[in-house]
Specification:
With 238 residues, this protein is mainly α. The protein has helices spanning 23-67, 71-78, 83-116, 120-130, 143-154, 158-181, 193-199, 207-237, and strands at residues 2-4, 13-15. It has a two-stranded antiparallel sheet with strand order 1-2. A hairpin with an 8-residue loop joins β1 (2-4) and β2. α3 (83-116) packs antiparallel against α6 (158-181) and α6 (158-181) packs across α8. The chain is extended. It starts with a strand and ends with a helix.
Amino acid sequence: MSFKNAGDAGSTTTTIPKNHRNPKANNFVVNSLFIKILTWVITAIIGAFIFANIKPYEIIAANFLTGISYKELGDVVFSIPFLGGLIKLLLGLANFTLGTLFWAFVQMLELLPLVLFGHGNFLDNNIARSGGKHYQANSKDPWEVKVAKHIGNSLSTEVLRFLILLGISVYVADFFLCLIVFPPVQGGNTADLLMVLQTGQYNKIDWSNIGKAIATVGAVEFLVKLRGILVKIAQDLG
């Protein structure tokens, strides 16, 4: 950018160096670029956690398929050269596929409340619906009418209530399911956890496996939420 002095006979020109023209704009670009890079890094980490977290469900799927197999027939088929190896490969692929589908189903149930409770329009509609028609309780009503009124009054918040209960129950079930794969007690017997807690033998608790179970259950949801916040920040920065 150049400026000329109007009172000068000559054409004196003042030039502002490029790196001093607009420091605020430079900081804005740097901050925006940093947020975008961080978002991509978190996306890659999410992918890594997804790949790692499928393993417990693959083990569960393998146990499920093993439970319905025919051992005698399997021993004969697996002993056949080439064909046995091919079948083992296909079974491994089936375990991974079934485990991935199982993991995806659980993750979607866990992510559904998180996504919807972060959606403004969804919350606005449900909050507005909760202030609608309300049946007044009357002591003279028959018991079946009282039940009907209670159910009718709860319909406006049914979706929110279902999502909250779904989120809690799926997380709890998923955590205990992961404890089967990552035994919380040294020695590998998950059933001994209650006895260990009752007798206070906390030195027998495998805290590493408990940490793995917690990471398996909550890491992806946390990173997805963090990525969503960073995306909003990047949008605000332009």
